[in-house]
């Protein structure tokens, strides 16, 4: 089966950059969401904040990859036009 054209745009470096940024967003959101948990136990509160940060980080992962794909495709089309 042939690869789709968009699969050739992202390199391993782009994927690594997205992974590092996503991990940073996860850590940031885990800390930011900590005061909004319902538990008074610090371990349970941190666990709840981490579970809440997972879908936010997943959404960021998809948005970051889509942004990189669109940006790289636009640059590629601009280079072809010149």
Structure, briefly:
The chain is an all-alpha fold. It has two helices and no strands.
> Which structural class is indicated by helix and strand composition?
mainly alpha
The averaged pLDDT comes out at 90
Poorly predicted runs of 5 or more residues: none
Helix share, percent: over 70%
Reported for the largest beta sheet, the result is:
none
What does the overall shape look like? rod-shaped
- Which radius of gyration do the C-alpha atoms yield? 18 Å
Q: Estimate the strand proportion.
A: under 5%
Number of helices: 2
The span between the termini is: 32 Å
> How many extended strands?
0
Helix-strand pattern, N to C?
HH
How many separate domains? 1
Task: Provide structural commentary.
This protein is mainly α and 82 residues long. The protein has one domain. The protein has helices at 12-32, 42-81. It is rod-shaped and about 60 Å long. The model has no long low-confidence stretch (mean pLDDT 90).
Describe this protein with a few key phrases:
82 residues; mainly alpha; 74% helix
């Amino acid at each position: 089966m042939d690869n789709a054209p968009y699969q050739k745009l992202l390199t391993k470096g782009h994927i690594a950059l997205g992974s590092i940024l996503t991990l940073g967003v996860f850590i940031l959101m885990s800390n930011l969401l900590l005061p909004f948990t319902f538990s008074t136990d610090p371990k349970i509160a941190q666990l709840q904040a981490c579970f809440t940060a997972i879908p936010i980080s997943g959404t960021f992962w998809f948005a970051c990859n889509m942004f990189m794909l669109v940006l790289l495709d636009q640059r590629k089309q601009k280079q072809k036009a010149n």
